[in-house]
Write a structure and sequence with these properties.
This protein is mainly beta. It is built from four helices and 18 strands. The strands form three sheets. Strands 1, 2, 3, 4, 5, 6, 7 and 8 form an eight-stranded mixed beta sheet that branches. Strands 10-15-16-18-17 form a five-stranded mixed barrel. Strands 12-13-14 form a three-stranded antiparallel beta sheet, with no helix packed on it. Bound molecules: zinc ion (ZN).
Length: 272
């Protein structure tokens, strides 16, 4: 009963602002502007049926949210680009495995492009120097030069929900969807230097694609031919990027690390 009352209270106090959307909320509604759009991906389920998933990031004057679309909801992606005002109606909020909030749309959800509502400008991120980052900083922006690139690491995920899979023998199973044909996700670590300090930046999947400017299919080839990745490492050295994300303490190595949820190449004009 306590949890229920708490849930109701949290929901009632929702302002429709992104900062007030919390994991577990259902039928949320908010407006914002598209900040980043990711490709539609197709996948096969264990029963042989085909699925589609796509996502985009939305910002308002309080924060950012990733919006995940499934099936025919992915059709909206072709109408979206950076800066487009949208209203998201319906869907539930959950926290992904990297600690970022996401809204997952369902069959009754709608994404309204150019809604009648007044749509705030996207909050300017707090830009920090690496030396000024603190443990648990969120929605913070850093800008730096890539000084070291590691090999990508591949792992099996559920094609339906992206959860990491358990392996037994040569079979893979999802906690929610049972035995599945695994899909692959990837993580890439780089070191970034901004003149004040150097920090490890951890990038997952969509962010790896943005950083490398490669598709999922192109990146998956490095799983079978890791040596083909070497030239990319060299190409990335000295390149500048803006990263938005959060700071986490790696307790094993006792150091701060940056997990990116948005990545943008920096062109020279932005530096002036
Ligand atoms: Zn699953």
């Amino acid at each position: 009963i306590v949890a229920n009352e708490l849930g109701v209270k949290i929901f009632d106090s929702s302002s429709g602002k992104i900062k007030d959307l919390f994991p577990g909320m259902r039928n949320v509604e908010f407006v914002g502007r598209v900040t980043q759009v990711f490709d539609v991906r197709s996948f096969s389920r264990a029963d042989g049926s085909q699925g589609k998933v796509a996502s985009f990031n939305v910002g308002d004057d309080t924060g950012f949210m990733r919006v995940v679309c499934w099936g025919s909801q992915t059709d909206i992606i072709s109408q979206l680009s950076e800066g487009v005002p949208v209203k998201v109606v319906g869907g539930f909020v959950r926290e992904n495995q990297r600690g970022f909030k996401e809204v997952h749309l369902n069959d009754s959800s709608r994404v309204v492009v150019n809604p009648d509502d007044s749509v705030p400008e996207v909050k300017k991120n707090v830009r920090k120097s690496l030396k000024d980052l603190n443990e648990n900083d969120v929605n913070v922006e850093i800008l730096g030069t890539i000084v070291q690139v590691f090999d990508p690491y591949f792992f099996e995920v559920c094609p339906d929900c992206n959860a990491r899979l358990n392996k037994s023998g040569d079979k893979f199973s999802c906690p929610a969807h049972g035995e599945v044909v695994p899909s692959y996700s990837y993580v890439l670590n780089v070191y970034v230097d901004d003149g004040s300090d150097t920090m490890r930046v951890v990038l997952f999947r969509n962010q790896v694609e943005k950083l490398l400017n490669k598709s999922k299919e192109e990146i998956l080839k490095f799983r079978d031919a890791p040596e083909a990745f070497d030239p990319l490492k060299t190409d990335l050295l000295g390149e500048q990027f803006r990263f938005i994300g959060r700071v986490k303490k790696n307790t094993f190595f006792d150091r701060l690390e940056f997990t990116a949820n948005q990545v943008f190449p920096v062109d020279e004009s932005q530096l002036k």
